[in-house]
Design a protein that fits this description.
Its EC number is 3.2.2.4. One of its GO terms (molecular function) is AMP nucleosidase activity. Pfam families: Lysine_decarbox (PF03641). It catalyses: AMP + H2O = D-ribose 5-phosphate + adenine. This protein has 7 helices and 7 strands. The protein is α/β, with parallel strands linked by helices and 245 residues long. It has one domain: Rossmann fold, CATH 3.40.50. A 7-stranded parallel beta sheet has the order 4-3-2-1-5-6-7, sandwiched between helices. Helix 2 runs parallel beside helix 3 and helix 2 runs parallel beside helix 7. It is globular and about 70 Å long. The termini are far apart.
Amino acid sequence: MNPKKTPYGQADVVLLSDEDAAAALLERAVTGLWEVVNDLTRFRRTTRQNFRVTIFGSARIKPGTPAYEGVKKLAAELVGLGCDILTGGGPGLMQAANEGAYSVDATGLNRSIGINVELPFEQEVNPFVSQAYGHRTFFSRLHHFMIASDAFVVVPGGIGTLLEMSMAWQLLQVRKLYNTPLILVGKMWADLVDWGKGCMLDEGSELASAADFSIPHCVNSIEEAIALLRETRVAWLAAQATAQR
């Protein structure tokens, strides 16, 4: 069978007027780019100086409120232990975390990090971010958080925070993330986990396994979160020392 002739002198040209062929070519190209990105993000440094903690939380909480001051204290304590703080870089509890980190080490470029996303309504990077990354999509931004973090702390938040928490939980469930604590602070998240247990573990019609609900560590206070992260960081430092031998 003779290949179809085109005015361009080659048989594999795809004309934009052929929408089905053009769409198929675009799909193959995008899928190929995803594979390249996935391969490149497998790289990791053998050793790093600081343990990186991502704090997910609401953009709506105002400075001076108990939640804001509590998250600021959490981040400051963690930087004092030798951690870097990652947030979404926006206002609210993201700003509280960056402010807490910045208050301890204003000169450290990697101590207070913001991973922001472009939104239809303007959301500027808060003034306490010392190193900022920008993303055009939530997809790439979430991926950045997942590959950059040694631990996740989820403080009160809305739908965006729920998305971030669920992404980390699901990747830990399917073992695409390892040894990365997911710490949920406050009653709202404990209630959510309890709801999941009640709705997903009915005998005979299970939608998840009991082990899945042991992944998140539910705590009641900032102090409990800090204690868990202190223990995790000790184990992480031991692994770093082993890697250097």
